[in-house]
Amino acid sequence: MARCVLPWIVASLAALGLAGCGFVGRPERPAWRAQAENACFARDLVKPSAFVVPSRAIDGPGICGMTRPLKVSALDDGKVGFDKTLTVDCPMTAALEAWLDDVVQPAAQARLGQRVVTVNVFGAYSCRSIDNEPGARLSEHAFGNAVDVAGFTLADGRTLLYVRDWKSAGTQEAAFLHEAHAGACQVFTTVLGPGSDVFHYNHVHVDLANHGSTNTGPRRICKPAPQPNLLPPPAAPDSLPPAPEIEEPLDIARHGDPRAVALAPASLAPVSLPPAAIAGPGAGPDGALPPPVGDMDPVPPVLPKGAGYSVDSSPTSSIADHDE
């Protein structure tokens, strides 16, 4: 008889317990989460596509879940994929896209000369406590509001991992991972990377938890503190066009070259002299120019007749016969 009653008692107690839970009321998800999802869609921050697919609401267990979840396999119109499909909410999808566009891709291009084509992740939605610790409060993963990023794959096939390359001091690979982490702190409200605690040695956790507000905006948690004075990116190649070839040397001192006049400063412009000053005393417009200076044989000047000059007609031999 007792064997028959005991199960009934246990069942009754369970029913009473369930009834009591129903009477007290089921715990509800904070209202701000659904409000954030709806506002994100209303502002068109995320548009459904072949890579961002709306899914059915996730309601439980407990208060886990989200009102309008998305299945995200890639962002940037499919140009940047995830190595596994993420189940996340609309605000997290929009934040991931902003982080990739504004931080990750520019840093990868500047430091590594490549674009990121795949984001390697450990996971997104999971109804669990923080760090899977028993008794801890629910993680942002339980609401599709967090992603764990393990690394990135570049267009040339290289894969950079936080567990391996984060501490490679003096390399552009490590500097890129640090820059991606530091930039995430400007987009997400929680960023926990290697060095923040023992649970994040191999990835960067990002989420949009509500930590309250400050006078400059939402309160943010960023660990470890971003490193100052990262290795500078390599110098970009000179993108200037090649200098044009000059067909012949430009002799700006050549007499009469109009280019010389065009290039000469105003203070050094050629001075035009009247013909009389060039030809000599008494010369008119047809006066002769001075003999040229150079390798040419000089030509004896022709003296104009009747211009007042005295011409010595004595024989030249008298010069040779004279001796002092």
UniProtKB/TrEMBL annotation:
Biased composition (Polar residues): 311-324
Pfam families registered for this protein in UniProt: Extensin-like_C
UniProt region (Disordered), positions on chain: 224-246, 275-324
Biased composition (Pro residues): 225-244, 288-303
Protein name: Extensin-like protein
Extensin-like C-terminal domain: residues covered: 39-214
Entry coiled-coil feature ranges: none
